[in-house]
Write a structure and sequence with these properties.
By secondary structure, the protein is of the alpha/beta class. Helix content is about 45%, strand content about 15%. It has 7 helices and 6 strands, in the order E-H-E-H-E-H-E-H-E-H-E-H-H.
Length: about 230
């Protein structure tokens, strides 16, 4: 099976660390030209330097603050005017933990803007380019909560389900153009984000880091609190 991605352009959101950065590294190893997208330019430059370029890949980055929908939209629309993207990885840090009964309107609005609206704006800006190429791969990093809601993650569960419904609907609309849309549902993953959450729990419970790390319960809800600088 030919897995080469030479001459393919891949845009990876939230790609300076964690799952996003790991995806970027793998896509680069397969030959893709990677465009990293996040809010911290220094982190973007550091991540860019760690990507494989032995196959002549040309990597770049876009600076965008995902908490500002208009900024994200303007950035991607401007980029799409001059460039085509074949592979899109929609990936953004999750909303803060909390019971759904305690959530207020602003919590849902912020989470939907962060995930659903940004995903939609980025994707639709790139769709025409994918259609003209007759090729597109849209991959959304979502959560296992799409299958089973996770305790103490009311806003996140709701938002992730909305993204999943959006993606399934879009998949039916673009399949005829050679474009696929898929959701990936990760659980707890060994990243800087997870380490910081283990440290926080260890401090709160006055427990050693390694003991918390070995707990089966270290999977969500603890692992899905928002990661600093992940977007």
């Amino acid at each position: 099976m030919n897995t080469s991605l030479l001459k393919k352009n891949a845009l990876i959101c939230g790609s300076t660390q964690g799952i996003g950065f790991a995806i970027a590294k793998e896509l680069a190893l397969l030959g893709a030209n990677c465009i990293l997208m996040a809010r911290n330019e220094n982190s973007l430059q550091g991540a860019l330097a760690d990507l494989d370029s032995t196959q002549g890949q040309r990597h770049s980055y876009l600076v965008a603050d995902f908490s500002n929908n208009m900024h994200v939209k303007q950035t991607i629309v401007s980029y799409a005017k001059e460039h085509k993207v074949h592979i899109l990885i929609n990936n953004t840090g999750g909303p803060p933990a909390g019971k759904i009964a305690d959530a207020v309107d602003a919590d849902f609005v912020a989470a939907l803007n962060l995930h659903l609206i940004n995903n939609h704006n980025i994707t639709t800006a790139l769709l025409e380019g994918m259609k003209s190429e007759g090729y597109g791969r849209i991959i959304n990093i979502v959560s296992t909560s799409v299958k089973v809601p996770l305790p103490n993650l009311g806003v996140s569960n709701t938002t992730r389900a909305a993204v999943a419904g959006w993606a399934k609907t879009l998949a039916n609309e673009v399949a005829g153009f050679g474009i696929t849309v898929n959701n990936v549902l990760p659980g707890a993953t060994a990243t800087v984000r997870l380490s910081s959450i283990i440290e926080n729990k260890a401090k709160k419970t006055h427990t050693e880091f390694n003991i918390i790390e070995e707990e089966p319960e270290i999977s969500p809800p603890f692992a899905l609190e928002k990661e600093p600088d992940s977007i």
